[in-house]
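Chain A, query sequence.
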Amino acid sequence: MLNCFDWIRRTRSGAELLSTLKLISEEADLFSQKMEISSPCSALNSPCQRCWIFPRVKEDDDYCEICSAIISGVKGFGKISHHSAVIWAYTNRLPKQIKDSKWLNQNSIFALYNHDNNRFLLILHRRGLKDWLQELILYDGADLRGLIQIFPTVGPSSDFGMGEILCRAIHHEATFPMDQLRIRFYSVAYSILRSQLLDHKGVSTFEITDFLNMMSTAVVFRALLRPDEQKALYDLLNINRTTEQKFHWGRFQGNLNKDARDMLNAWKIMRWPKDKVNLLYQLIDYVELYQIR
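Chain A, predicted structure.
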């Protein structure tokens, strides 16, 4: 008999994951019922085409009862999944945000699964990530320790599924000692499947305050530079020839307003390593747009 987490690990896409978590929270009895294992494949019969374990509900149906319920709920979560961030956390204890149900009514939180007293899975709107982390520090920052891994969802056509990504996230729990609260941010989902323990392209590890500082930097950056200016700056920062870069930098600054020009000069963004520049641009999708000029 599969438990709830077994079904979570069998999900393929972010929409399937959201559908499964909704069923677990609203129809827990569906996963606790005893189901007989299907008979082997034959010319006249075959098991569920999704889990390949349990019998199909009807002869003309491709799925078992649970898989059918999961697939039926996927359509409503496709767009939500596209704008979601997934959090898998392994901490010394569950934070107050997770134990207290009042936080779960926030519009930015889509689903929650408490695996045990030290692990939880949270899916929220990526633009709500900064606020959620700030509340985490406010209420639990003094004594919460562990590793919080953040990564995007994948679509149904991906070569790997959400279940595989979650299993690899669990594997990475032992990467760091539980002496402080760390954030590990994956810009693309497939980065989590790589076996290296050290940070590499697309993966960054921070103390939680440093990560929030970088998100605050992205907020200001997004507010003071228009999308076309952000793109022009990115292209400029990736020019390899120093002389050519300085020439374009002067022309670029001449087209900016004073606030944007002062911001970039104060940050000394021309001296930033490329990994930091890439992280800034990745975090733009994770912060709200505020009008501060």
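The CA atoms of residues 5 and 224 lie 44 Å apart. The first strand starts at residue 84 and ends at 91.
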